[in-house]
Amino acid sequence: MDAANRSQQHQATPSFAELFTPKLITVLREGYGRTKFQADFIAGLTVAIVALPLSMAIAIASGVTPDKGLFTAIVGGFIVSALGGSRFQIGGPAGAFIVLVASTVDRHGVDGLILATMMAGAFLIVTGYLRLGTYIKFIPYPVTVGFTAGIAVIIFASQLKELFGLDLTGKEPGDLLPKLVALGEAAGTVNLAAAAISLVTVGAIAALKRWRPSWPGMLMAVCLASLAAALFSLPVETLGTRFGGIPRTLPVPALPAFTPELAMAVLPDAISFALLGAIESLLSAVVADGMTGRRHRSNCELVAQGFANIGSALFGGICVTGAIARTATNIRAGAYSPISGMLHSALLLVFMLIAAPLAAYIPLAALAGVLAVVAWNMVEKEAFRALIGSSRGDAVVLLVTFALVIFRDLTEGIVVGFALGSILFIDRMAKSVALEANEPFAADDVADAAEGDRADYNARTAIDPDTVVYRLSGAFFFGAASTVGTILDRIADQRRNFILDCSAVPLLDSTAANVIEASARKAEQAGVRFFITGASPSVRHMLWSHGVRPPHVVYAATIEDAKALLTSAHTP
After folding, report:
1. Where would I find the STAS domain in this sequence (predicted)?
2. In what helix (H) or strand (E) does residue 472 lie, and over which residues does it extend?
3. CA 383/CA 146 separation, integer angstroms
């Protein structure tokens, strides 16, 4: 039987090739024709139009030049689609990274950022090949909602300067409260033209989303704002006046500057990039699965994200991850395969080659308006309200994560939120474990029962009065060990025979096994026969490995089997 189980388990375990074959290969094996390519081309074009202004806006908000956002979407996005484990994932720069990237640039410069991006890529590749992607998805829902909302607040605050064209004296602080203080002190320098451009951009995006949702609202709004700024010669900063525009070609790939000291200095940033990138990309893949009914390969996706970050760094780009909004746009546009994502990157390159001179006229206030809309859309408002009202524990996890992300650090918010969520889960699971007595009916109850019921009862539960039966149900683990152990210690030596039924125990850990072992030892010292019934193979293995084995205990398949053993033992 054990050999058969091992054989079935081996057959159910996916092979290395199954786990790490890119979805692109899977699609091509299925057959790929002209009709499918047309669907992918339309979807890729749609996503490219959305990604064009967004990539530049995210790069600027991250403290780097706009071209780096385009390089990231072109190179990183292509690799994500070509090697990834999701059919529909769109890779590129993401708003979730703005805070981390900006702080890394502030502390270590662009060279440090690119090195950290490459190191994060290596970490993601290792994480994928170690098959840890499954565990990264175990982030509690309140944590994801909390840190996403926190990031949205920080992104919006970071755009206030550009939204209103404020003229700050000195460098803009990175932390939220000092930033708001500095912005408040500069309130008298509001540029009405920049504020009007921002308002037009946000209003146009909202109007197009409401009345023409299939149109590329962000790109059209940016084009409208750029046209207005040029026609009326508005005194606003543009990509041309601040950055000199964007290049028309990709740079030559090159390794980032490396020294052991710089690598050690950016190591915490690289770990943060890898952690957030893994969470964001797998969350995006899960969303895509929910929209399409498909299933992604999480570890394959992490490997692809790793190579994409290395590729982006070689071309001077920033962090790459799966972008939820662009992935959803890709699906809604009718994408069939990862080729749509590859086409999105290729079309972005074409746009950059052709329209690079026109990018110089884009007002920074318009890109700030785009990011303001992105920040608003990032907040899962319905989920936030639902979690606040669902339970006190979920509300605490949500609000603590949200507050730490805003006022402390993104990574700290995720780690603390995960820890609180885990404690909450342990508490709930511990309360779900039950140990209930299965005592015989009292004599009066038996006398009052109908003859048929009485006969059925006698056949099933008639038992020696010196025997007690308890049923254990639920996952028995360290969280419930103390409570259950106290009860077992109290009852294990009260009768001559003690039956512990574990047929409703799906899981048992080492702490729980140790508790049962201690109770069995105590029962043996008191001369009590200890029976364990209904234990699954995994539960029995755990108990056996902790010394819960004959002759200290007797195993039986069912309570009835244990009773039969007792009956035969008492039969002369």
Report:
1. 457-566
2. strand 467-473
3. 10
Structure tokens at 71: 């390089």
Domain match, 356 and 442 both: no
- Please provide the size of the chain in residues: 572
Asked, for residue 99, whether it belongs to a domain, the answer is yes
Do residues 81 and 24 make contact, with C-beta atoms less than 8 angstroms apart? yes
- The per-residue pLDDT for 268 is 93
Return the structure tokens found at 265.
């200095």
Band of the pLDDT at 456, cuts 50, 70, 90? very low
Which alpha helices (DSSP H) does 379-450 contain, by range? Answer: 381-390, 392-407, 410-432, 443-448
* 357 occurs within a structural domain: yes
Average pLDDT along the chain: 86
Q: Are 559 and 533 a contacting pair, CB within 8 Å? A: yes
Q: How far apart are CA 498 and CA 532, in angstroms?
A: 9
Q: Quick one: pLDDT band at residue 432, thresholds 50, 70, 90?
A: confident
Place 570 in a pLDDT band, splitting at 50, 70 and 90.
low
> What's the burial of 336, exposed, middle or buried (CB within 10 Å: 0-12/13-18/19+)?
middle
Is the per-residue pLDDT at 351 higher than 70? Answer: yes
Question: Do the domain assignments include residue 93?
Answer: yes
83-92, 112-121, 247-256, 473-482: segment of lowest average pLDDT: 473-482
> Cα-atom radius of gyration of the chain, to the nearest Å?
31
Cβ atoms of 23 and 85 within 8 Å: the answer is yes
Q: Residue 353 belongs to what domain range?
A: 33-385
* Residues 285-298, mean pLDDT to the nearest whole number: 86
- Our CA dihedral for 274, 278, 281, 283, rounded to 10 degrees, sits at -140
Task: Please tell me whether residues 449 and 558 are part of one structural domain.
Answer: yes
DSSP per residue, 320-371: -EE-HHHHHHHHHTT--STHHHHHHHHHHHHHHHHHHHHHTT-BHHHHHHHH
- Choose among 533, 511, 515, 512: nearest CA to 523: 515
Q: How confident is the model at residue 49 (pLDDT cuts 50, 70, 90)?
A: confident
